[in-house]
Design a protein that fits this description.
4-stranded antiparallel sheet, about 30% strand, 3-stranded antiparallel sheet, alpha+beta, about 150 residues, 9 strands, single chain, about 25% helix, 4 helices
């Protein structure tokens, strides 16, 4: 009986380690290329950060107030100091969330990090670092303006 319990505990520990440290990359964009490019970029820090991974999925995120001209940007890069950078596609701009209201000409965007990433960082002693809104940054490339002026 003790031998079986020992194997089960080793299996559970191994699965936990694999889940917490498994690299995940399912993005279509290249965040390194965006950050390294010489094009003009717009960066904004989080207005508010929620870090509650013990509540399950989608409880570790930053709320960002972005100008309306970046609503159509296909990608943005979330940089979390200590955790790295992640490329994401835009979805779901809102005008108010969690008692935060968007200023005129802006929208709110919530951007999540994976719960397993947050748990790994917390276990490494970085809870206060990921809970600081100054450490969350969204980077957008400047939207391309189409010149419609033609010469006659």
């Amino acid at each position: 009986m003790h031998r079986r319990l020992r194997y089960i505990l080793i299996l559970l520990l191994s699965l936990s380690i694999i889940i917490l440290w498994w690299p995940v990359n399912n993005s279509d964009c290249n965040f390194e290329g965006i950050l390294a490019s010489k094009t003009t970029k717009f960066q904004v820090n989080a207005t508010k950060v929620i870090v509650q991974p013990w509540r399950g999925r989608h409880h570790v995120y930053g709320i960002f107030m972005i100008p309306d001209k970046y609503k159509k940007a296909p990608f943005f890069v979330l940089t979390l100091k200590g955790a790295g950078s992640y490329c994401s596609k835009q979805f779901g701009q809102i005008k108010n969330y969690n008692d935060i209201f968007a200023e005129p000409g802006t929208s709110l965007v919530r951007n999540f990090i994976r719960t397993r990433t947050a748990l790994r960082l917390i276990l490494q002693g970085l809870y206060f670092q990921i809970n600081d809104k100054k450490n969350w940054t969204l980077t957008f490339t400047e939207p391309k303006t189409s010149s419609t002026a033609t010469r006659n």
